[in-house]
Structure formats: C-alpha cells, structure tokens
Amino acid sequence: MSRRTDRTAARVARRDSLLVLLSRAQRGVVLTAAEAALLRAHVEAEVDDADRYRREAGGQQAAVRREQQRTRAAEAAIEEAEQRATAAEQQLAAVHALLPTDARPHLGLPNAVAYSNGVHDTYDALRAALAQH
C-alpha cells in the first residue's frame, strides 16, 4: 500500500473508533481509563490533522494569490506590448506614406529614405511625421 492509502485507512479506523467511543459516552456508559485515553488520542490526532490541513490550505491560498498577481502583471505587459506594436505600426505607415512608391520594393528603408528623389531632406520629413504619431 502507498503512504496515502495507509494514512486514509488509519484515519478511517480512528474516526470509526472515535464514533463508537462518543456514542458510548453519549449513552451514559462510563468509559474506562484506557477508552478515555484512546478518545483523547483520537481527538488530538483529528485536531492535529485539521491544523496541518489549515496551514496547507493557507499556503495554497498564498500561492494562488501570487499567481494571480503574476497573471495580472503579465496581462499588463501584454497590453503594453500591444500598444507599443500599434504605435510602431502607425509610425511605419507614416514612413511608408512618405516614400516614393517606386522606391519601396527596390530599396531597403534606409536607402529609400536617403535617396528618395535624390534628396536627403526626407530624413527631416520622416522625423516630422514620426513626431506627429
């Protein structure tokens, strides 16, 4: 048997014994010293288990809260990244709008900007367009 199965079997046996002892005490049967000691041992074991499970549950709740905070932080980072991507797409669209149509497929962006109509003033136009976005 596994330890978990052993613990479950021990808990079931302890609770069955506990219920018998409590039923006898409720009916007015005077418990022997051994039965009273057994009753006390069973109750203490149940209290110890309850305390341990309560601590474990508290630890699990704290872990869930930490994961919720991490999830909220990740969602905020995703939202910020999406906003930055949207801004970058808008800036790129502004740059593309300034480039001559025939230069776009043939030249990389730096070359297209630098040599658009042979004029280097396109950099100033790009800066102005990007500043607007």
Can you walk me through this structure?
The chain has 133 residues and is mainly alpha-helical. Helix content is 81%, strand content 0%. Helix 1 packs across helix 2. The chain is rod-shaped. The two termini are 69 Å apart. About 4% of the residues have low confidence.
List its salient traits.
single chain; mainly alpha; 133 residues; 4 helices
Query: How large, in whole angstroms, is the Cα Rg?
Result: 37 Å
The number of E-state strands comes to: 0
The overall average pLDDT, rounded, is 83
Task: Find the structural class using helix and strand composition.
Answer: mainly alpha
Helical content stands at over 70%
Global morphology: rod-shaped
Q: What is the helix tally?
A: 4
The ordered H/E elements are HHHH
Strand content: under 5%
- CA distance, first residue to last residue: 69 Å
Give unreliable regions as ranges: 103-107
Main sheet makeup: none
Per-chain topology:
Blueprint: H1 3-26, H2 33-98, H3 109-115, H4 122-132
Helix pairs in contact: 1-2, 2-4
Brief overview, please?
This protein has 133 residues and is an all-alpha fold. The protein has four helices and no strands.
